[in-house]
TrEMBL record:
UniProt cross-references to InterPro entries, sorted A to Z: Isochorismatase-like_dom, Isochorismatase-like_sf, NIC1
Family: Belongs to the isochorismatase family.
Stretches assigned to the Isochorismatase-like domain: 29-199
Name this polypeptide is given: Isochorismatase-like domain-containing protein
């Protein structure tokens, strides 16, 4: 049933993916969205996968590869980590990624980033990293990061494609269009570097307030919506020679 629905979606609302080559003289920043234990490590929490998941495992692998390229070149990385205060729920989801818990930390394959000088870690308590970057004085950690690093192209990976990744991308594109993020020009979402969760209809039926969430369909929809807001969707990402 899900496979058939996915085939219909891909036919009726296809997502055109690109091979994106980013010139080395275009200042590029990498954003990692919520690649943490509570969403990605098997059995790590209420919203973690119950068993190993191929889409999530590929997302982690691709994110690690990109992170190593960026760190080797000392290019800027911003990692959002979903982190919530106890008792402050995020409806309709159960308690997850509590501050100070193992759930709210980077997955083991990315924990080395915490010691890299080009990496900025931002804990957030909402879906949208752009909103989650607002400080009490009205400043914005993400906006400052873009401006201080003169970022022209943003490369986005992480989870969930259709939730936190999409919300962040939409807000970022709106802010760029309003002129709040100069010199940012392009936002690239790397499809194989993104993933979402799988919650079939049979499980949702037995869980109060839960919504059905077929993984492949919602991943496709997240990419489609991001492209509709103006993001580039990349099936492959490479870094080219300097512009002439």
């Amino acid at each position: 049933m899900v496979v058939h629905a996915l085939e219909i979606l891909k036919k009726e609302i296809p997502v055109e993916e690109e091979q994106v080559c980013i010139p080395e003289d275009v200042k590029t920043g990498l954003v990692l969205v919520d690649i943490i234990n509570g969403f990605c490590t098997t059995g790590a929490g209420n919203l973690a996968p119950r068993e190993p998941n191929n889409q999530i495992l590929e997302m982690i692998d691709e994110s690690v590869k990109l992170s190593r390229v960026f760190c080797e070149n000392k290019w800027p990385i911003l990692a959002f980590l979903d982190t919530h205060k106890p008792g402050k729920l995020e409806h309709p989801y159960p308690s997850h990624c509590l501050a100070g818990s193992h759930e709210s930390n980077l997955v083991p394959a990315l924990q080395w980033l915490e010691n890299e000088p080009n990496v900025t870690i931002r804990r957030k308590d909402c879906y949208d990293g752009y909103i989650g970057s607002i400080e009490e004085d009205g400043s914005n950690v993400f906006v400052d990061w873009v401006k201080n690093n003169n970022i022209q192209t943003l490369l986005v990976v992480g989870v969930c494609t259709d939730i936190c990744v999409l919300d962040f991308v939409c807000s970022t594109l709106s802010a760029r269009n309003r002129g709040f993020l100069a010199p940012l020009k392009d936002v690239v979402v790397y499809s194989r570097g993104c993933a979402t969760f799988d919650f079939p209809e049979s499980a949702a039926r037995e869980t109060k307030d839960a919504l059905t969430h077929p993984q492949e369909i919602m991943h496709h929809m997240g990419l489609y919506m991001a492209k509709g807001r103006g993001a580039k969707i990349a099936r492959d990402v490479s870094f080219g020679a300097l512009k002439k």
